[in-house]
């Protein structure tokens, strides 16, 4: 069981064109740290279709460049004794392949900490810098999030005085200044953010509250007050309007209008006697929530929706019930067919939606070119497309003046669904177009690179 399980309760305020694994569904991957308490991991985030990171509870990280078939341990400062939270999984953030941050506590665990430090890389993890933001006894580096290379927020919680300190930066983390936070936060961009709290009068756990800011955290407006059972665990927004909160007691909430209204989702199929700790949505429609069959007894599962929560399907996992604990801490999907999750005792799983054989045998009735995701993006984005008959296929990228920038695909393709990634790290911010040509079929779509 993660020693960080109850921390948040006291915060008051790709489908690849060449699949590397023939199995479908959720598949276990190998954690080089092993299993158990010393192998605890938290947040998973991918910065491209094949490159991803996982936060470790001992100040380290796991890194993959082959979609998780192999993970390596990255320890930015091996001589330092630091620790970080696995549950909740909020101690790491990446905005692109080069820029990432991890917040750690100075000390071996949250019961014996003496400040907080932030580790930062601007070259994809090749080198790291550290910024000590607190040396106070009892301070624990709890949460960090960036939305671009400059704008970020951090939360430090003191377990001696039971007080939070909220900090923000506009220069990538070189300088941090206090701001008036309102709980565990989720920022969609440099201005719009949301947060939730779980403490009420006299230290009670209710009411649960949700807040919103439109000026980067300087001011917060209370949006929702909830007296129903179920401690809030985490939140996720796919854009400024569409967001989700998941909680204990199988409680799920959603908004489609930027928090003006929050509605309970009662048909998701999560276990009403268990806690949901992870939620991830690609867009307003496609999302995943973690759950488990019964607390500390049976294998956890994931529920998935493709219509914004109107209907749900269940995805089983191979996590089992090792050491009597089986919580899923974090979920991340690169596209609707390729995702990863982390779980208690150092477990990692990858989701494969379709195999190469499935792709070869699939029936496609028409050519199509999908909107890239994410969009806007920085610096990588993914483009899905369908081929209805064997053809020479090209996908070309153009700037706003019509100049050809790059050829992403130029080869014979059989019938099937495919995807390609574009890394625009060398390109200036702006509007770009990508064009699919196959036989007599052509289609062009617009994408926006933001830096």
What would your notes on this structure say?
- By secondary structure, the chain is mostly beta strands.
- It has two domains: 7-352, Methylamine Dehydrogenase, Chain H; 362-449, Immunoglobulin-like (Sandwich).
- The chain is built from one helix and 36 strands.
- The strands form nine sheets. Strands 6, 7, 8, 9 and 10 form a five-stranded antiparallel sheet that branches. A four-stranded antiparallel sheet has the order 1-29-28-27, with no helix packed on it. It has a four-stranded antiparallel sheet with strand order 2-3-4-5, with no helix packed on it.
Layout of secondary structure:
Layout: E1 25-29, E2 41-46, E3 52-56, E4 61-64, E5 72-74, E6 82-83, E7 92-94, E8 100-106, E9 116-121, E10 129-134, E11 139-146, E12 152-158, E13 163-169, E14 177-178, E15 184-187, E16 193-197, E17 208-213, E18 221-226, E19 232-237, E20 243-247, E21 252-255, E22 263-264, E23 279-281, E24 287-292, E25 300-305, E26 313-316, E27 328-335, E28 338-343, E29 347-352, H1 356-361, E30 368-369, E31 380-387, E32 391-399, E33 404-413, E34 416-423, E35 430-438, E36 441-449
Antiparallel strand pairs: 1-29, 2-3, 3-4, 4-5, 6-8, 7-8, 8-9, 9-10, 11-12, 12-13, 13-14, 15-16, 16-17, 17-18, 19-20, 20-21, 21-22, 23-24, 24-25, 25-26, 27-28, 28-29, 30-31, 31-34, 32-33, 32-35, 35-36
pLDDT averaged over residues: 87
Q: Ranges with pLDDT <50 over ≥5 residues?
A: 1-22, 355-360
Number of strands: 36
Strand residue content? over 45%
Q: How would you sum up the major sheet?
A: 5 strands, antiparallel
Our Rg estimate from Cα atoms comes to 22 Å
Overall body shape: globular
From the helix content, strand content and strand pairing, which structural class follows? mainly beta
Count of domains: 2
What is the CATH architecture assignment of the largest domain? 7 Propeller
CATH superfamily of the largest domain: YVTN repeat-like/Quinoprotein amine dehydrogenase
Q: What is the CATH T-level topology of the largest domain?
A: Methylamine Dehydrogenase, Chain H
Ends: how far apart?
40 Å
Q: What proportion of the residues is helical, as a percent range? A: under 10%
CATH class (first level) name of the largest domain: Mainly Beta
What count of helical segments does DSSP give?
Answer: 1
